[in-house]
Each structure stands twice: as structure tokens, then as C-alpha cells.
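Troubleshooting log. The previous structure file for this entry was overwritten by mistake, so regenerating from the original sequence record. Sequence copied from the archived sheet and checked twice against the printout by T.R.
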Amino acid sequence: MIKMAYEFDNNKYDSFIKTLRSMDDTVDILFAIFNYFKVNVSYNYDELQVVKFQRAEDDRLLAIRDLSFQNRTNNSSEFKEKLMQLLDEAFMNIEGRPLSNKNKKEWFKNYGMVIYHEAKPSRGNSGFKISGNNAYDSVIHLEVNNYPPVYEDDLLKEGVCADYSLFVKRICDEIDIPCLIVRGKGTTGHAWNLIFIKERNMWVNFDMTMVRFYLDNWSQEYGEPEKWICATNEEMFKMQPSRLIYEIINPKYGTIFNSTIGAENQSELNEFLLNLKPEETLKR
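Regenerated output below.
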């Protein structure tokens, strides 16, 4: 299904919102947002690697994190090279590419310096920082830098799935379209949006991360970009059978649905959405 293009200044948030408000059909609006993402927003794959390493859902990354901590007093160049090689191999197996050049530079730039900790490290929170306070035990630690989303004049230009879903939510709030944030799992932890199409009286899954992945030749096996604009729950789980939903969030109220939903028990989600009043999800 091909939708007509609408003109707006790609560098002006107000121009974008004004254009969306001038459109009458919700599906047309979603296609316009889709086209904005398609042309103007890149995905921060460096940050994706950071997230995967921090969450360590893969046993190989967890083993590297443990190895780094166990060898925290080893600041030799040989051990640094060993960690680099292990990270390269792990990400090649997980993503089909090694540790990115940016991460190689950022993750290891502090390696070998004296780094102090204030709290016992755990897998969820390293608790480390560079410090000159000798009251703390000195350790050597693999530092992982996070990269924030990139905005220009309030328009998202680069980010990860969480940034995508927050930006879509903000846009929908501006133009009074009911929109929710979904947190769950795709190939790793994931976030996307549920948007209400009043003309069809139904909620659809709007996932611009999958659009970007397809366009970047990252995961084309999960369906063409246009299919992720107005995907029903059934269509979404068919395109990505391993997908899970953990919670649905309306920032105004917090978590409004909390249950692990997959392809096998999606009827529970369908029933919830059927009874959800769209007007109650609006920001204003």
C-alpha cells in the first residue's frame, strides 16, 4: 500500500507537527511518521552493543564481564587484547559483526587507569567510577560508555528502540492520537508503540526499529518495512514468532498492563486492548 507524500521541513519539529495535524486519516499520519524515520533517523548500533553487554543476556557476554572483574588488577596490554578478541568473537556470533570501532575506542580508553569503586559490583550495576580518592580500593575495570540519542530542533536523528518509542509517543500526544509504549523482547530487549486507529476502531503495533533494521540489511527476515506500520498482534507475532511483551506503559499512569505475552497467549493482550478506552490514554 503506497501512501502519498506530504511536504514538510525535515529539520523543523513544528513544521512536522503542523503537517501531521493537517492530515485527516490516522493511517496517512502513521505513514508520514514512517517516512520521516525512513529518511531521517538512523539507529545507534554502538549503543545496541553497549545495552547487550550491560544486560548480558548472552552467556558469552556474561563470561566476559565476569572475566573482566576477576582480572581487575591486570592492566597489561596482553589482557586488554584478550578482552578485545573475546568481545569481537562474541559479537560476531551474536550480531554477525565484531565490536564496533567506536566501542573499541571508548570501552578501552580508560583501561589500565586506576579506577575506584564505591559499591560492590553486580551484574546489573557496575558501581565503578574514575576517582582520585584513595579511600577506596583500586581496581582495573572494563569501562562501557553509553551514547545518548541525537536530536536536532527536537527531531530525533539517531537512537535505539527506547528512543524511537518515546519520540513516537511524543508526536502522537501532540496531535491527540492515542499511543502507548510497549516493552518486551525481539532479538533482545525491545520497545515499540501501540497506536489506536480510530477509523478502524483498533490498536496496531507501530515499530520503527524493525523498519530501520530492514533498511540497514540487519534483519530482513522479519518482514518488509511497511508491514510494521499497522501490524495487528497476530501479524506481529507471525513476522517475529519469538517476540515477547512484558508490559504496556502509558507515561501518564505508568504500567497499565503487566504480563508476559507471546504468540501462544496473545488472546490475553487482545482482550485487554478491546476493553481499553483510547481516550483515557491521551496525555491531555
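The chain is about 40% helix and 20% strand. Archived copy saved in two places this time.
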